[in-house]
């Protein structure tokens, strides 16, 4: 079975019994190495797709990063990293919009 970790986050729905929201990162067997990142907001109904699906597949040349099953980024080894650029962009968004929130905890799932 593939390894999976989750990061739960809060989504303010103003409901006392708000459904759980989380990010799920799962290893898969595609290419030499692969991972998927799925974002679920307000729970998940059976067979419902995630709000966001990112798939990364590693091969001998680099990594292919696809979004929602459509086009993506071909990241060759020793080039400027798309994921690092994405983290840098998200960090800028966080600086401008994040006030007093807490970091999520990493939870391994069996």
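Q: What amino acid sequence fits the structure above?
A:
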């Amino acid at each position: 079975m593939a390894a999976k970790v989750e990061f739960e986050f809060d989504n303010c729905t103003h409901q006392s019994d708000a459904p759980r929201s989380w990010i799920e990162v799962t290893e898969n067997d595609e290419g030499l190495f692969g991972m998927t990142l799925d974002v679920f907001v307000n729970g998940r109904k059976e067979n419902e797709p995630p709000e966001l699906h990112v798939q990364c597949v590693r091969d001998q040349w680099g990594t292919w990063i696809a979004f929602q099953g459509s086009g993506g980024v071909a990241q060759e080894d020793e080039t400027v990293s798309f994921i690092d650029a994405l983290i840098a962009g998200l960090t800028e968004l966080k600086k401008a919009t994040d006030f007093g929130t807490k970091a999520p905890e990493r939870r391994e799932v069996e």
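Q: And what stands out in the fold?
A: The beta strands are 4-9, 21-28, 33-40, 52-58, 62-67, 72-76, 106-109.
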